[in-house]
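User: Can you fold this complex?
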Amino acid sequence: MATAFSGPGRGAIMAVKGVVFLVLAAISVSCADSELGLDTDPTRVIALSRQLSQEFNGAYPLSPVPNGNVRKVELNASEFESGVRPPYLSRVWGYNQRVPGPVIRMALGETLEVKLTNNLPQPTSIHWHGVRVPNSMDGVPGLTQKAVPLGKSFVYRFTPKDAGTFWFHPHFRSSEQVEKGLHGVLIVEDPADPPYSAELVWMLDDWLLEKDGSIYDQFVTHHDLAHDGRWGNFLTVNGQFRPVFMVNPGDRIRIRMVNVANGRVFLPVIPGMESRVIMVDGMAVAEPFLLGNFDLAPGNRLDVDLVVPANSAGRTFAVENRFSRQPSLLAFLQVDMQKAKDTPSFDLPRAGHFPDWKEAEGIPVHHEFILDAERGGIHGISWTIDGRIWPRSQVLELWAGQFYRLRFTNRSSRLHPMHLHGQFFRLLSRNERDTDERFWRDTILVGPRESVDIGLVPTDLGLWANHCHVLEHAEAGMMTAVRVN
Ligand code: C2O
Ligand code: CU
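Assistant: Here's the predicted assembly.
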């Protein structure tokens, strides 16, 4: 997985630009923060920053390694009827007449070519959430492409750089389009993936349905905006209410979980099963940890290593959501009556290289994003970043190859899962207390009145969206952009 960080030529230029920037950053904090004991000596900050970006080197590949194979997929977005809540039919929007959307599987090294055709009553686009694509393929109208009009097509083409669990969804009126069923999963397989007995893909969602099974048709309501977006009354896994998944005693199963809901946060647990998180947001963790310790916010993914006990033939295990005070049932794992097979034995997969960044607190915060709300705007309530409503936002300039500490400060009492496109980052601290998350993320849940620091070394160039993944908050302005130069 490890590849060289950058060619000597470009690296040198970056380093020079980095120095210029950091001198400024360091000087600007030297007066304000000197009583706080922050290291304000500019040369020390520069040296430390260089050390932190060196620690990052090799964490994930800079460029794809195409093997020449092209996977061609057609995705036709349209409206149709689906049995979300049997016996009723719901009018949904989906890809290829499927809700939930298709699971696209490909091998690392393959090039994906997706032809999106829009048969919806409004424009659309596809964003490849978590996939480090060339900027022009990121699917964000207003930033990277024009929305695809009714009756037209757009071809997305890219070679993923990372193997893992990703997903895709529209980035145009997503509060309505994702909610109505437009989403799917992209799985990039690595030949080095461990030999699990089986694999399950779970799209966790909630629908806001009327008694007759129809989708409540008011979107971005005052209520959604005054709360954590639209939370449904009907929880589904893969579009089904409390589905039953058959497993065999002794199986070792990989579960790929994706939260595709507009606003709901899930805290999945499977009592009685040994289950460990091996990947977060599509990237292998440095230290696997027990399931039940991760708030799966909208946009987040978890890959779970689950062992079905050998002596559990005939038993049923519940999959629960414990995020809300009142736990709820999501699904069941039903163990077959057959005799246990030998459980495949292999070490839990983990990240090949993960930076320690122990001294990251020595680097001043490069930018603090202020998350807040205000009255007014087309929806009555607007959600803001740095006091601005998208698209009247200011672009934050970053340089590739340089270590940054960024802060999200939530001045509101709502939840904001913040998603940065095109990059992975690591959580450094919550409310200025260091944390020890040993994994990458592309989405971080920022709680009420909470302040969160992340560390990152941008590697992928271009203009990238940075927004709240509560889709109603994003629709009401909570989005900005960063440019990686
Ligand atoms: Cu999944 Cu910009 O989002
Ligand atoms: Cu939000």
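The helical segments are 8-32, 42-56, 174-177, 222-226, 471-475. The first helix runs from residue 8 to 32.
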